[in-house]
Amino acid sequence: MSQAPFTFELVEERKVPGSEAWTLHNENGDMLGKIERRRIGRGHTIFWMAYGVHPDDGRMIPLELSADREERVRKVLEFRADPKRFRHHFGWG
User: What is the 3-state secondary structure (H, E, C) of 7-26?
Assistant: First the structure.
């Protein structure tokens, strides 16, 4: 994977006690996306849902679940760098 063309910061959000969510921001403070902790049903496996902020219109676009949080962070950064690569998943535009 190539290096991201910007720096980012993960910021923990606390909306609901016990919930976990992080937002990703670039060096200017612009939100790049969000990662949320999820459990499916009564399962013990923790999944992470990624959302990317579309750079053209600001829409929050879902980017799949994964059990690997760091991989979800990379996915948000990849989306920001090249959102058209994800087009076939959502049918926008």
Answer: CEEEEEECCCCCCCEEEEEE
Domain segments of the chain: what residues? 8-87
| 68 phi, psi to nearest 5 deg | -105, 105
The backbone region for 2, taken as left when phi is positive above 0, alpha when psi lies in -120 to 50, beta otherwise, is beta
pTM of the entire predicted model: 0.74
Residue with tokens 């994964």: 66
Are 49 and 71 a contacting pair, CB within 8 Å? no
- Read off the pLDDT of residues 14-42 as tens digits, 9 standing for 90 and up: 565 556 888 898 888 889 999 998 888 88
Q: What is the chain's length?
A: 93
CB 12 within 8 A of CB 22: yes
